[in-house]
Specification:
The radius of gyration is 23 Å and the shape is elongated. By secondary structure, the protein is of the alpha+beta class. The chain has seven helices and 14 strands. The chain is 32% helix and 34% strand. It has two domains: 199 residues, no CATH class; 101 residues, OB fold (Dihydrolipoamide Acetyltransferase, E2P) (Beta Barrel). The strands form two sheets. A five-stranded mixed beta barrel has the order 7-9-12-14-13.
């Protein structure tokens, strides 16, 4: 995430204890989006409410057979936390951040559940207290749901213990119990869908993976079908064409199998491709994988993985 100084007016407008949620979401085109938001930890519940929202969001993706989407995740968090706002700073250097929930989400696998990797960092934010911090990592849908259920169970027991002297605590315990039951049901479904021996997704480390993804690899040879009309525009150095290719053998880019590739052509090849290729055309392409950062209309920064085409031709068979 980009590091920036926190403006004084925003320091005053936010509470002293913050929960920061950073999500890196990769789609089937290997386009990576970064979502970073902050919310006040007014109730002192730490990461538990965020984990519950994340677990129910993953269960909804399973129910609807949808892939992770940054705008949908942000909407789910905003509904649960009305005080949420964007967080374009570095949480490591922000003394107000008591909890950092870092999650990586990938398209659903054969089991129907999105790939998920979770790291929760907790630290003391009170001035004058002995500093401490701890980090909890969970990889795979079963591990993440199991951890969330355990955290909700502990929170429920804590509220029950407070109920003897704090009447509202009994109602809070009831609400937590409802969340725990919903997460337990999702965990039961995940245990049925994902065999116990199924390895979780690799622990990629989002910062290291971003650095690794910025270098282009060797040229690749791919065949596939054009899925949409070729888009042609005039660039500063001549014509530029863009087409979407559904590869016959989808390449693995980073941790994602790219079922659709964005291909870029320049010069005379761009004009010829726009004139000759239509949806359904079967082509052979030679090109290198490149990475392009951009920000879409939803203001969520993304990194698009594209194939910079060096040669292209129509397959004869």
């Amino acid at each position: 995430m980009p590091a920036a100084a926190v403006p004084n007016e925003q320091v005053q407008s936010l509470t002293s204890a913050l929960i920061v949620v950073h999500a890196r979401i990769t789609d089937r085109r290997a386009v990576t989006a970064d979502l970073a938001v902050a919310l006040p930890d007014t109730a002192g519940d730490g990461a538990v409410p965020v984990l519950a929202v994340l677990a129910l969001y993953l269960a909804e993706l399973r129910r609807t057979s949808a892939d992770p989407d940054p705008a949908a995740l942000r909407s789910a968090l905003a509904r649960a936390f009305p005080g949420m706002r964007g967080y374009p700073y570095s949480p490591v250097h922000d003394p107000r951040v008591g909890v950092l929930v870092d999650v990586a989400l990938h398209p659903a696998s054969d089991g129907g559940w999105a790939g998920v990797q979770l790291a929760v960092t907790e630290q003391n934010t009170e001035a004058g207290r002995h500093p401490w911090s701890r980090i909890t990592r969970r990889h795979g849908i079963r591990a993440v749901l199991r951890h969330t259920e355990a955290e909700l169970d502990a929170a429920e027991q804590h509220q029950h213990a407070l109920a003897s002297t704090d009447r509202p605590a009994a109602r809070r315990a009831e609400r937590v119990a409802q969340l725990r039951a919903a997460v337990a049901a999702a965990l039961h479904q995940a245990e049925q869908d994902v065999p116990p021996g199924t390895p979780p997704p690799p622990a990629i480390g989002t910062g290291a993976r971003l650095a690794a993804r910025t270098e282009s690899g060797p040229p690749q040879v791919l065949t596939g079908a054009v899925t949409r009309p070729v888009m042609l525009r005039e660039g500063e150095d001549g014509p530029v064409a863009r087409l979407l290719l559904a590869p016959d053998t989808p390449p693995v880019v980073g941790e994602v199998t790219a079922s659709v590739l964005v291909c870029t052509l320049r010069g005379d090849a761009a004009r010829q491709a726009a004139a000759a290729l239509t949806p359904g055309s079967h082509v052979l392409v030679v090109g290198t994988v490149t990475h392009r950062p951009y920000t879409a209309e939803d203001r969520i920064p993304r990194i698009a993985v594209t194939l910079d085409v060096q040669h292209i031709g129509q397959a004869l068979v």
